[in-house]
Design brief:
Blueprint lengths: L1 E5 L5 E6 L4 E6 H4 L9 E6 L2 E8 L2 E6 L2 E4 L4 E8 L2 E8 L2 E8 L22 H9 L2 H9 L1
Parallel strand pairs: 1-4
Antiparallel strand pairs: 1-2, 2-3, 4-5, 5-6, 6-7, 8-9, 9-10
């Protein structure tokens, strides 16, 4: 079992069983002292499913609903489209091996936000996963924590 932190809600965490793809959301506040102190990764809900980025057995893993992929040197995630029609594709050796659609929660963004350190990936978990999948340095940081 792995513990995942919600990418959008601080109080929300999930128990995740990769072998069975069981995914149970819980409240850190309600768990109290039995809430975990460390997490294996992050997750985010989207209309018809969820996305998760986590480390397992020294590898960086990406799950989308009932599919799991190893994000290695040969596998990346691409994200295309407008906020109300995002396409996420997992690409291995140049071939699309998985594709799904999702939309962004427009209420989570700040239009014309002057904060310089806020980026699009802070509001788009798919884009966050995509950017990490393409950066050896960022993958290494996640795997080392």
């Amino acid at each position: 079992m792995l513990w995942l932190q919600s990418n959008t809600k601080f109080d929300e965490i999930a128990e995740f069983y990769p072998d069975t793809m069981e995914f149970t959301k819980l409240s850190k506040r309600k768990l109290g002292s039995s809430a975990p102190e460390k997490f294996d990764g992050f997750f985010s809900d989207f209309g018809t499913g969820w996305l998760a980025l986590y480390k397992q057995d020294g590898r960086l893993m990406f799950a989308s609903s009932r599919n799991i992929f190893v994000l290695d040197d040969n596998t990346i995630v691409n994200v295309y489209g407008s906020p109300n029609q995002r396409r996420l594709e997992v690409v291995r050796d140049g071939d699309v091996i998985y594709s799904t659609l999702y939309l962004l929660d427009d209420t989570a963004t700040f239009h014309d936000d002057p904060t310089s350190f806020i980026e699009d990936e802070d509001f788009d978990f798919g884009l966050f996963v995509s950017n990490i999948s393409k950066s050896p340095d960022r993958k290494a940081i996640i795997l080392s924590t």
